Each structure stands twice: as structure tokens, then as C-alpha cells.
Hints:
By secondary structure, this protein is α/β, with parallel strands linked by helices. The protein is built from eleven helices and 13 strands. It has two domains: 14-139 and 278-305, Response regulator (Rossmann fold, 3-Layer(aba) Sandwich), CATH 3.40.50; 142-276, Response regulator (Rossmann fold, 3-Layer(aba) Sandwich). It has helices spanning 46-62, 77-90, 106-114, 142-156, 173-189, 206-220, 232-245, 260-268, 279-294, 318-324, 328-332; strands at residues 14-15, 35-39, 65-68, 94-97, 118-122, 136-139, 162-167, 194-201, 226-228, 252-256, 273-276, 302-304, 308-310. The strands form two sheets. Strands 1-3-2-4-5-6-12 form a seven-stranded mixed sheet, with helices on both faces. The longest helix has 17 residues, at 46-62.
Amino acid sequence: MKLLLFTIALVPLVPLLVGCGESNSSGGSKDGKYRIAVIPKGTNHTFWKTIHAGANKGAEEEGVVIIWKGPLIESDREAQIKVVENFVTQQVDAITIAPLDDKAMIRPIKEAHDDGIKVVIWDSGLDPSGDKHWDSFVATDNFAAGVKCGETLADLMEGKGNAILLRHMVGSASTHKRAEGFLKGLREAAPEIVLISSDKYAGATVEESQEAANNLLNQFADDVDGIFVPNESATEGMMAAMKAAGIAGKVKFVGFDGNDAIIKGIEEGVIDAVCLQDPFNMGYSAVKHAVAHLKGETVERVVDTGSVILTKENLQEPRMQELVNPPLKKWLKE
């Protein structure tokens, strides 16, 4: 199954499938098409590939050229800053970006916006001090999604026991909001549940996440009754650690996002639930909004692309199947 949703080494600059006209330093391409940069936090996870596919669809519909480029891993702030700076130098017409760090990315994004480049933020926001430097924000309501996760875990734990929150990464606005929403949802739905750890971070990769999860479970495996993690790599890493600790399927586990391994975990009962976003729609809408701003059209400044809770029980429902089987082959030519 393909999941929807959903060093300074960089992915090579790749003109997308649509309108690959030669670029022109004055903006636009030689064939007159807008050039729109699409900059993810990373490029390894299924989530980012699904964003890429949705952006391709938006580009085809609008007849524009998009350029996909981002850091290999989600902890390389300097790499993402350099990507933005390079696109400003190239004078692309618009930049759509998932800021890797809500504070560190303000300066380069401000420079782009001040230079007349339209900016659409997607997936993860900036610190509020940077809000005047972008034109639209297209993302999941991450706090609300986190609340759903807290309520789901509270229900799975029947309102009692000990819980763990393993956070994602410092500076990631989207996953921070999910974690804070989770805490609110858990507290309000089940005030008797005791949070025995909530200040540890998983890191940017599955390997880092598994190591962090191993460390937590070495300390708390005998005491924990429920676990929440707020992103794809942390979900996969925690699942592996739970299997190694012999508590998979015994301790209630709610994750976020997914990939083939995570969906298999749902099917096997290792993961009780995950919150799915709609990354295909996110990438699609980000490009559509960028084009609308370039054309001078009036569009929403903030767009919620939605989220749902996936379980083994509802996995086969049509909407869930749409989310876990995005058309990646069609739009990425895989």
C-alpha cells in the first residue's frame, strides 16, 4: 500500500513534469509560464512524496513550471535556508514552503517576500512574528488534529493509566502544535491519566526516533499504558521499539501520518490508530494558491486541509483508502 496523506547534501534541482521551459532570470520561463518553487522540510518520507505528487497535479492544471527541491533530512536548517536563497537569486515567481524551523526560516522567507516573490506556507507555520511575510498558509489544523489524537488515546486507555508523549523535533511548528493539542485532548477527555514523560524528542529520522523510543521504553516499558507520537518517522521508530521491548499490541499506541510499514502496523494491531492528513491536497492547494496570488485573484489566506483518525476498523472505508493510496505513480511517474 502507498500511504497518502500523506549534512548539507541536497536533492538535485528537478523541473517538474509540467512545462519544463528554460528559465529566465527576470522571472517566468522563456515560454511565458510561471516558475514556482516547492520546498519541503525533507524528501525521504512518504508524506513529502505525496505533497510532490499533489503539486504536480496543480502545476498541470495551471500550466506552470514547478521546481521541487529540499533538504534530505528534516533537521538540516542551513540547507533549507540556502534553497530559499538560491530561488530568490533565480527570481522564481513564487515560493511554496514547509518551514523546517519556525524561527530560523523567517529571515529568508521575508527576503523572498520583500523581493516581490509570492510566498505560500504549507504544512508547518512560522512563528507569529513572521506572519506578514507570506500570502497564504495551506495546512492541517495541527492543534485540532492533536486534540483528536489525545481524545483517541484517552478512549483506548479507558480513561486511566500512564501515558507517554514522544515529541518530534525542536523548531517544528506543525508537530509542536500536534503535541500541544494532544495534551489538551488527553487532559480534557481523561484527567485521571498520568503523563509519565512528555519532554523527550524523537529526532528527524526513523533511526533517531527508534533510538529515542528505545531509551524511553528502557525506563518506562513496565509502567506505560498508552503512547502518542506526532509524525511519520516517530511513529515508525516507536513501533519498532515497542516490538523490541515486547509490548507491541499490549500498550495502546496512537501515531501520526503513515507509510506502508505504518499501515501494516495498523493491520497487525501493533498501532491502534493514526491521524492522517491530506498531503496530496496540501501540495495541490499550495500550487493553486500561489498561481492565484500571481494572477491577482482573491483567495483564502489560511486553508485547513483536514485530518482523520484511521483505525483497523475503518481502514477499508472509501475515504481512508483514498488517503492511504494516493496516485503517486501517476503524478511522480514512479
